[in-house]
């Protein structure tokens, strides 16, 4: 009878199988790649926009350095007011004539005035509107324009504005604001700009006159402000 082998007390069971690998069908790619692609695309768009902005800015700077544009100067050189009465039925009767000068001080820039609309108002209430002649203004040129506002217009004044009208009527000098709404194009050599829409504001103190003669203090030449 064979002699039975003695074990050292440890139990040796079956071997542990190696860990199984995931099959190719169960593999799912990480989303990190998608995020990376989105970040690259955003960075590319940002750099493209930045390049365009810098290019436009440099072009504008170069144009400014070459042409050195100066603001056009507007003045009202004369104003004649022979009638300015508000009737009991809120009809304003008026007769106002204005002379303007427009000075282009630029050496290399011409200006196309494609549209000029003049709107006079009293206490922020407009009472007329006239279209003035269009023209082209060359370098370092001064142009004269005139406008006549005559007729009657329905205006509604509250108590405060009515009181101000009475005060000015007694003084014989009226605060009349005239705004010019423009559509212009600038000419740089052979190149023309897109249309710009500046607004000119003229705050006038116009004395009332009779038969073209103004008693006392006459009208003073007034500089207008330019607003783009």
UniProtKB/TrEMBL annotation:
It is found in: Membrane. The keyword Translocase does not apply. GO terms for cellular component: plasma membrane; plasmodesma. Keywords: Membrane, Transmembrane, Transmembrane helix. It is a single-pass membrane protein. The chain crosses the membrane at residues 48-67. GO terms for biological process: defense response to other organism. InterPro entries: LEA_2 (IPR004864), NDR1-like (IPR044839). It comes from the Eukaryota. Residues 100-202 form the Late embryogenesis abundant protein LEA-2 subgroup domain. This is Late embryogenesis abundant protein LEA-2 subgroup domain-containing protein. It comes from Ficus carica.
């Amino acid at each position: 009878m064979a002699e039975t082998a003695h074990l050292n007390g440890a139990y040796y069971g079956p071997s542990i199988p190696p860990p199984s690998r995931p099959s190719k069908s169960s593999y799912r790619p990480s989303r990190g790649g998608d995020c990376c692609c989105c970040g690259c695309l955003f960075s590319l768009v940002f750099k493209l926009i930045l390049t365009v902005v810098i290019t436009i800015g440099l072009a504008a700077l170069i144009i400014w350095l070459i042409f050195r544009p100066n603001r056009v100067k507007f003045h009202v050189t004369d104003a004649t007011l022979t009638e300015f009465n508000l009737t009991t039925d809120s009809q304003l009767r008026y007769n106002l004539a204005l002379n303007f000068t427009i000075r282009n001080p630029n050496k290399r820039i011409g200006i196309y005035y494609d549209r000029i609309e003049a709107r006079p108002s009293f206490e922020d209430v407009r009472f007329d509107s006239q279209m003035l002649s269009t023209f082209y203004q060359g370098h370092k040129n001064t142009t004269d324009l005139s406008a006549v506002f005559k007729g009657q217009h329905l205006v509604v004044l509250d108590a405060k504005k009515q009181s101000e009208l009475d005060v000015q009527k007694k003084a014989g000098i009226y605060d009349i604001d005239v705004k010019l709404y423009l559509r212009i194009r600038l000419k740089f050599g052979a190149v023309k700009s897109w249309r710009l829409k500046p607004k000119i504001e003229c705050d006038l103190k116009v004395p009332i006159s009779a038969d073209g003669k103004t008693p006392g203090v006459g009208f003073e030449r007034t500089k207008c402000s330019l607003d783009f």
